[in-house]
Structures are given as C-alpha cells and as structure tokens.
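Shapes recur. One chain:

:::
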Amino acid sequence: MFHLAPTYTNPVRRTKTSQRFQLGTNRSLPPPLEADEKSYLVELSGEDDPANAKNWRFSHKMIAALILGFDTLVASWGSSVYSAAVTPVALEFGVGSVISLLGLTLYICGFATGPLAFGPLSEFYGRKIPITVAAFIFTCFMFACATAKDFQTLMLCRFFAGVFASCPLVVVGGAFSDIFGNETRGIAIACFSALVFIGPFISPIAAAFITESHLGWRWTQYITSIMGGFATVLDVLFLEETYQKTILRKRAQFIRSETQNWAIHHVSEEENIDFKELVNKHLALPLKLLFLEPIVFLITLYTSFIYGILYLFLEAYPIVFAEYRGISPSISTLMYIGLIIGVLLGCAIVIAFEPRYNRKLKENNGIPVPEQRLLPMMVGAILFPIGLFWFAWTGNYSSISWAALAVSGILSGAGILNIFLQALNYLVDAYLMVSASSIAADTFLRSLFGAGFPLFATQMFHKLGVDWAGSLLGFLAVAFMPIPFLFYIFGARLRKMSSCAPTDFGAPKKADEEAQDSDKTQ
C-alpha cells in the first residue's frame, strides 16, 4: 500500500573514448578485469538469503514490525496531542484560539513536505538510517516545543517536528513491503494504517488529563518527546535494515574490505543521482497525475476529505460533548474511544477481504487486480455518512443518551479506515509503474485538508449547530460515496485510456516512458 519511494535504476553512463587516462605519476590504467563484469556483482546467494527480509524468521519480522509500528504511533500521536493545549497556549501567549490552532495545523503541514525528502532518502540509504535520524531530530524539536519561551518558537518547532514525523508514515510502508510477501502484506499494512489513525484519537485523551492536572500543557510535549526518545533508542539498538539494496551494498563493501578486491560491488553503487530527475519524480510527476488523471484526482479528493474530517473531529467532539452536553473536558475526550473501536473494526473488515483479493491475485498470475481493492472501500463509503448523520442528529438532543452519540464514532471510524486504506491500495495497484508519485500527490493534498479543517471547525459547529454542521459533512460524504462504485465498474476502462496506468492487468502503456522509468516500484 504505502511503498511511496521509487527505485532508482540509473547506471553511470559509459562513453567510448580514445582518451588516455592518467591515474597518477607515471601510472596509467591497470589491466582490464579478466572475468566478466557480472562476476564481480554481489547479488542474493539463494532463495533463503537473509538479505531478502522476506526470508527472516517470523519472530524476527515481528520485532521489526513492532518497532516500526511504534515509530508510526509516535508520529501520529504527536499530531493531535497538541489539541488539548490549544486553549492553555492561547492564554499563556496572549493569542486567539484560532491562531493557537496553528500548532496542530502546522504539524500536519509538515506531513506534506517531509515525504519529498524521505522518499528518495529511503532508497539511497535504506530504511533504518532515515527513520532513526528522523526520530532523533523529531525528539529534539518536541523538547523545544515543551520549553518554548514564545509563540513563534512553539509554532516553528511544531512544524519541523511534523516534517520529521512524516518519515515513518512514508518509509514504514516500504519496510513492510520488504518484510512481508503478497499474502501477508495486506494484513500488515492494515495494522500499520490502524496505528496511523488510532494515534490521533488516543493522544487527545491522555493530553486532556495531563493538561487539566498540575502538569500543564507543556507536559503533553514532554511526554511526546520521551516517546520519541524511546523510539530512537529502539531504532538504534534493535531495528535492522530491511531494504535489500542497502543490505547487499553493505555486503559488497565488507567483501571488498576483506578481500582487497575493489572490483566487487553491488549494482546500486553504479547509480547516478540526477537532480533534474529527482525534481520530476517528486514534484512534477505527482502534480501531473493529480490534475490530469481522473482516478488519481477523485480518489485523492475523497481521501483528503476523509483526512480532513479525522482532524476536524478533534475540535468537534469537545464542542459537542463538553460544551453542549456539559461533560468535563477531560472526560469528554473518552468519547474518542468509539472512533478507536471503529478504526479497529475497519481494520478487521479489510483483513476479512484479503483472502478474496489473494485468490483473485493468484487467478491473475500474481498481477494486481486493482478494482478488487474497492470492495472494502464500498463498505466504508456507506458506513461513513451513516456515522456522520448519526453524530449530527443526536448531538443537540439532551433526551438522547451521550452513549448513543458516542457509538456513532464506531461507524465513522470504520468508514475512515476502510476508505482511506483501500483508496491508497487502489492507487498503488492501478498506477503500478508510477505508484510512488500517485501516493505523493495524495499525501500532499490530504495534508492540506487535514491542516485546514480544524481551523473552521469551531466556527462551523457554533454557527450552524451540531445538527446542520454534521449534516453538511454527511451530505458531502454522500456526494463522494459513488466514487468506489463507479471505479469498480469503469476503472479498467479509464486505466486503458491513461498514459501512466497499467493496461491489460499489468502491461504499462508506452506513452509516458520517462515517468515509468523514473517511478518504477519494486
């Protein structure tokens, strides 16, 4: 699903020349290598080579998955732990509540910019180094947030913390692709996605109780810093590299050092980094896909709306439960438990459809069948507006128990997970050769929605009321609902008309050769 980074396969250009090279004083070129060039390449030694992380023992895989999952949880936790600090920060620094909300939105804006760097870095240096370095710098910025002396410092540090927090959201999906095969990857990615969404709902609960205690809002940032520091220690001590190219490159370096045979190398050491090509892959091509490909545009618009609602709930729930229902602010955050249960239910629904997808994949000789990804998304598209309307029309009526209102979150949470996860899976399968760029386009736009929605949530719910504000969101969800059904019917035809999407279930069209070469995924 989240294998966001493209694989670079640009060998150094070799030109025929009659030029006489001089290596030093009275030293010309040494004799040519006696064996064929391929004889010096380091490759997998067999089907059970541990350089392929898919061959690791199950316990070995689980250790890596748990560490990477914790990195992801910390990153998503940090995004919303600030929600309980909005009012205290506004009072301490003398700014308005909407201005104070920038601490939440700037962090999410960091999610939009970070992948531009961490995507290619994970291909050049592997998975461990970017994740470990990002976790350490994230921890530093979170400590800076906790000790900020003015509002500007706090906002800048929140933004840069978001930039480095985006690293696991980008790289962990690629690491899971390294570790798990087709049969188990769907389940692993579903669990990974659940952590991405559970984090923003768990942290406001903890933050509310911390803020209302004598500890104050700064400890919401201190605790996040401590979590980041613990993640860094786990990454340094226990996380092993999963990226095959990096593992084999290190093996080649070791063999060279031990044998003093400098011809031994891995093919990745011949690669040439082209800045112009990087710009095309990570800036130009994603924008091209976003605005010229109907599938990418509509799926991205839908997931952006879902992502915006996710962070809008961080403002809407306190209004409904604390202001209108009179529940204390800290207790009102416990209502997020309904959303958490919904996310777990959505994860279970996706996993339940995995055997069907694997069966279709096997019938199609291992070639992805994109439209099969849309079935759980259809379920989510139906559940999500039901949850929103339920939330809207039980919020204002004191005769209706708060428990009935909280239960609406189960449907909303399940819809969020099903729509979001399967939409991204569909993009990866439908745009196999340029999947990294399609996901980059989605990541950029949805981060802007996630950053913007909380800014108008308070005014919208105060002026329209819970019933009509929630209904407005419900009607928008209904307007988006036909998308997975339409693509299930017409998606294959649209892909045949595309210059970037695979046609005939896997054969890429020839029209955009440069895009395919520059963005081919493993």
Notes: The CA atoms of residues 300 and 442 lie 5 Å apart. The chain has two domains: 50-260, 282-498. The beta strands are 22-24, 27-28, 502-503, 507-508. Residues 1-9, 505-522 have pLDDT under 50 and may be disordered.
